[in-house]
Amino acid sequence: MEAAVKEPEVGYPLELSRYAGRINDTDAHEWVPPESYVEQFGKITQTFADIGMRAMEALKREVTSRRLDVDETNEITKKTAWFTKGPYAPGSYDMAKRLEIMDFCGVDKQLIFAGGVPISCLFLLGNIDDKNMMPEITGDRRKYAYDCIHAYNEWAVRQHEWSARLRTVAVLVGNSVDELYADAKRLIDRGIRAIWLPSSILPGGKSPAHEDHDRLWDLLQGSNTSVLLHIGNEAGFYATLGWRQANAFLGWQESQEVQLDPWTLGNLHMPSQSFLNCMISGGVFERFPRLRFGAIETGAEWLGPMAQTMDRWATALGSKWTARFSMLPSDYVRRNVRVTGFPDEPIDIHIEHHGLDDCYCYASDYPHFEGGTDPMGFWSQRLDRLGEGVKEKFFVKNAEWIMPD
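RE: above sequence
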């Protein structure tokens, strides 16, 4: 009797075989180890390299205590694909190896967000006047952060040479609207397909709904470049009410306690989602209906309640809303917005409670620890009862909006 032929190992649950090679991963990261910062990003990052190398020993102890590999490995297996985490995981910053990991896991395209250097820069920018935050960085701390982000963006541009499947996300910051626009155009002209706008920082010093940003949104819409928010830059949120300083918010009724404009009303109980609220209620998606927008690794449970709250206020505002907008807020969410959940988040329940099944997308968070060791399996099992149509949207179709061909 002939021995049974052993099926080759794959990195996705067998019930997802029908989607293998088409799955879209909307959240992954580069994780360059700090000893390689200067080599990968340039001499400007030397101070961050020094800070990072001191922190790596603590990280290695944490990784070891969680029984996850810390030694560099090149072999692609289920263990290395899902259990090996950190800067020494295969493909952590070697994009040729990243493509191998994606192939093994049945992934077509992947959004690749920034790692240590840009995230540290955003923490610094959010605490720029706190001298206890990264005291090693002296002088013009803001300029240093901007310079390091620009150095990272150069690295992000270079990665596109490997494959169009790799969607490295550039970080867009600037001191003015003109500076922001010029940098975005330069990055897009050089191949960038997605940008990260830090949600705790007024872009270019002005509300995202401000009319001065319209040429930026027009540029991004016309080039099919996605606008993305991402966790990791919350410091400094609500240090200003500049979010509300745009012509779109003038002329609304005021009460004794609060201004009754749609941004404020929809944001009363959900301040962490103000950026998206501002884009919707400030009319950005009304003016730019094909603008591609994603909120990544911020959780997904807030989206339905936010849309419901904004719809309630829009309906209450009646003709004041309909005179300015052609749709309800939830309609803009369905059309323009995609979000990701955390690896243990019950997306099926979110859909049952609020619908919006066109908005939720699969995300691995590779090679970060928070991504877990079986996000594909968890979400596949949770979505089984909603049918293959919903499952295909989640793993394949929805993300095509923010990762277009």
